[in-house]
Write a structure and sequence with these properties.
Number of domains: 1
CATH architecture: Orthogonal Bundle
Distance between the termini: 20 Å
Radius of gyration: 12 Å
CATH superfamily: ACP-like
CATH topology: Non-ribosomal Peptide Synthetase Peptidyl Carrier Protein, Chain A
Helix content: 40-55%
Number of helices: 3
CATH class: Mainly Alpha
Shape: globular
């Protein structure tokens, strides 16, 4: 595994751990696959939980998320959420 792939794997694990913590899933999120649907599929992921996840991302990764950067598509699947975080990290 290249360093780049290892870094992405770690980011994926961190993103899933944050989602798991914010939604109180008791470790379930750690088994999510890239195509796992989120918004509309997880009853725990309501509008307040989205805000919580975003706040935890900002704290954990050290970036700021503007209101105009987020829409429903960001939380469509694990893959779209991970792509958003990766884009913020550069």
């Amino acid at each position: 595994m290249t360093d780049f792939n290892f870094k992405l794997t770690n980011i994926r694990q961190e993103v899933l751990a944050i989602v798991d913590e914010a939604l109180g899933l008791g470790g379930r999120a750690l088994a999510f696959r890239p195509d796992t649907p989120l918004l509309g599929a997880l009853p725990e992921l309501d509008s307040m939980a989205v805000v919580g996840v975003l706040n935890l991302f900002e704290e954990h990764f050290g970036f700021i998320i503007g209101d105009d950067e987020i829409d429903g598509a960001t939380f469509a699947t694990v893959e779209t959420l991970l792509a958003f975080v990766e884009s913020k990290l550069g």
